[in-house]
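Please predict the structure of the following assembly.
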Amino acid sequence: MAESNDKQTKRLAVRLATAALAMFGFGFALVPLYDVFCDITGLNGKNFKQGAAEISTVDRSRTVKVQFVTANPADMPWDFKPNERSIRVFPGEDKQTAFYAKNPTSNWMVAQAVPSVTPSEAAPYLHKVNCFCFDRQPLDAGADTEMPLVFVVDPELPSHISTITLSYALYDLTESQTVTQTNINKDKGRASL
Amino acid sequence: MATVDVDLPHVKDEDPHHHGPAKGIGRWLYTTNHKDIGSMYLIFSLSMFMIGGIMALIIRAELFQPGLQLVEPNFFNQMTTMHGLIMVFGAVMPAFVGLANWMIPMQIGAPDMALPRMNNWSFWILPFAFLILLSSLFMPGGAPNFGWTFYAPLSTTYAPESVTFFIFGVHIMGASSIMGAINIIATILNMRAPGMTLMKMPLFVWTWLITAFLLIAVMPVLAGVVTMMLMDIHFGTSFFNAAGGGDPVLFQHVFWFFGHPEVYIMILPAFGIISEIIPTFARKRLFGYSSMVYAVASIALLSFVVWAHHMFTVGMPLVGEVFFMFATMLIAVPTGVKVFNWVATMFRGSMTFETPMLFALAFVVLFTLGGFSGLMLAIAPADFQYHDTYFVVAHFHYVLVPGAIFSIMAATYYWLPKWTGHQLNETMGKLHFWLSFVGVNITFFPMHFVGLAGMPRRIPDYALQFADFNSMASVGAFIFGFSQLVFIYNVIQNVRAGEKASAQVWEGAQGLEWTIPSPAPYHTFSTPPKVD
């Protein structure tokens, strides 16, 4: 074979190897892309609004049932449950409820709840004015607490949705938190709001 | 296909540079010869096929009756996992690479692969990858037991310790596949004989060119996903760990982004093989050559936008379900074109039914059947019923066993006389075919029924009403498994002795590989042939 052909082959091989490397990178790029995609489309029921809602009108022509569900991963020993299983609200009306948490272990622990909304279509219409899930929750051994939640359902909520389920999974963050325990103590006041 | 007109000065080449093979083990360790490497790939693949097959027989023996008889559930899970991994990465893929090594240079008139030393390397790391994977069977905690799809967090948080060895094994086999793919693309694009334009290439070459691009696109994504697992397990990241802000569903998306093109990596070269064999034994040109090429290319492109049909039940929104359902069904169109073309090739041909043709015909019928059950699974609302049942097992075994594996056997019987210089023993070949054909159908056909009735996959025990079909499937599996001994006998017997084969071997065969004598000399096409 001619020399030029050898050179060509080498160049092609290098290009293909670069393409393979780029695809390796692409595999990792899928991680943020996935988050962005879910954010835009609201596919995983996590793009709800946080903070004060600019909703002034209350729609008294219908009510929406909001259900509360809690879940603990296998290695999470806390008792964690909603004070009320479900509430009927008028869209646009501020509602307050609370969740109960108890640390039955003999160790100081930190946890955080991660929320999810079903159906995911309803997620953008559920405004959380204040939620315990915004912050980490430390609890001493044997201690318990009530964790507040203030929310509004947007009156724009599509009319075919009559029930919204708000689910919380409570994760143990003690291990990642021991190192920065001082920081936690600092914002303890805010967390147990 | 081009009509071929070549003279063969290179056959009796006395140039001392063109020596024969070296002696002893060194021949195999240091070889850069595409035929040697092709043979090693094929032998390696055959031994993996046997190991994976033994695991399948352990699975089927346990499932012969309801209840737990032979193995513990955890060992059963290790068997299903290892069977899948070994058959996919150890048997089917290396077999196609082996066939590519042997045949592509001979079919395009090249003296060897473009990057012969890399070729040696990409083969020789493969046995080590599988040594690492198989050694995990003897480790405390046992081998990987989370299924060949290794969904996180089952494969991260709840995995046995040996998962790290599995990850490194996958890294190594991925590297091997990528290097093999680079080599094949470089060979096809740069080493074709003068006059061998792209649209004159045999379809086996075409399908492999497209497959190689798929490999380069998705094997690195597989390497990426196992690397994320490695980091989650050992370095405290949380790609797939919800407690740390990760998402287990992300794993499924990344895995199937690799996984679906991977499915076509295992079937496109088979399409190529069948497109070589049917014209030979129908003694007609392949019907619709260019439509075949475009069909393969469009199947490859579509394979990137259908991955989520493996995960209809994760809780996707309706729009997603509908998109992936229709995109998946769209693939039936180019596949239908291919099946139509094969049938049209046979139409009014003067067909004979030698062993390779029998395997090719069985491929067309049974692969189409597997394709149809795939279409059923693609119907999103129905998939909620079929998901993770034996119906899925029946579906993918129909496309992989009488699909990919039959095509590999067809290819072996078709080109074996060219490799060894001996004519096939047709009687033994046909015996192997009929035992395999009957065995495969007895094994996998009943799985459709138990699947539709709701028997879940990957379980060592099952409800009593599934007992009859399961014992049937087990009997079939043992027939199929043991009939592969006939295959091994046939190959060994053909290597050792047999009636001398002519260069042409098959009366209707077309293409450059049939212009060189049988057995193919150690070096072929040192002077490129001219293709008109």
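Residues 73-108 of chain B form the longest helix (36 residues). Residues 9-16 of chain B have pLDDT under 50 and may be disordered.
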